[in-house]
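Notebook entry, structure prediction.
Reason for the run: the old model in the group folder had no record of what sequence produced it. Starting over properly, with the input documented here first.
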Amino acid sequence: MESAPGLVLVNVQLPDGRRTDITIRNGRVVHAGAGVAAGDKKIDCTSLFVLPAAVDIHVHMRGGSQSAKEDWETGSRSALAGGVTVVVDQPNTIPPLTSPELFLNRVRDAQAHSSCSFAVNSGITPGTPIEAMWMAGAMAFGEIFFAPSSYGEAVDKAVFSRALNRIQALGGLATVHAEGITPGEDTGLAAHDALRSGVQEKEAVIAVRECNTCGCRLHFCHMSTAGSIDAAQGSVEVTPHHLFLSREMTGDADCRFKVNPPVRTERERKSLWERWDRIDVIASDHAPHTAAEKALPFPDAPSGVPGVGTLVPLLMAKVLDKQISLADVIRKTSTAPAALIGIPPAGFSPGDRADFALYPRSSSTVEPEFLHSRCGWTPFEGLPAIFPRTVILGGEIAFCDGEFFDTHPAWYPGKGYLPSP
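New structure, fully documented this time:
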């Protein structure tokens, strides 16, 4: 029996410099090497960067009462247009995802409206039925807040330690928002940095380590200082806003840069790049708010920035300038996050998930009108970036030259998932 026509990426340059053709059928890579069968659709990749599409393990897709900020429809389109085909949604929604019913409602909402594949995490509170959330399909637990943030309530050390014991017994992953807060007037970016200082972040990382007497798998979200990275015992995530932005780049009252953990000094931003090899995952912490909310006086404005659509494009501009390697971008945005959460990898080998993003070898700049997020603004406006020309999800073209196409995105439940009878 003849196989169905497939999609062939012709003359792909692999990260090691070799050229090959990648043949895709039924959502998987089936062949790496020359040979195009009759009827196969071809995409000439001679002048393109070809990457396994990104897995952004830290997004807040909002929705519900927060739909003016973002929802699954707009957030997932922003992801695709930025070369991201899988996102992991965080549970600090309104209401938070701390029961199987609320969790499965969230999954159904994403299944109905998301253009990209997704997973969903479980929240942690004193009363969260952790085992039931695991069986409902939670990918991981958290981000667990060690300090309060916008729409995130902190848990105390006793609750945190008990939760780690239960998560470890299940073989699960705990993702942690490690911060400390000093009371004071939050009047601007410098004050915000001081009240949620890098020293306190490092102390919180150490406190998390001390609570983890059971050896639970830990993932540290959005580390913002070199000291915190050095102290972390677990996988380390850093965001583009901490790598590319510093508070010296704008006015002190600019709420567009207000985020938790804070955007730090230029010196600290550069120190993060010095830890590049220690960083396991680059994730966006996509947390959009409306422009009107960000126009409020600094103490009243919520923390958080959009970023899923700019996660990879910002890094690709650095690849073009030969400041970082293509292999590192693939590892930190695709291979490592997929392995961390336990989903099939996208890649160039037979059997790999056929999710790819094809980027031109020339840069542009970040402009908010091309990002598709409902919030309509970005703190990265004007920075160099390379946006994908074509994005492939499950072997199907999902985005090309500014146009979206229907595909078949997947829900990736965690490994404890037990489907209802």
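Summary: The chain has twelve helices and 19 strands.
The old model has been moved to the deprecated folder.
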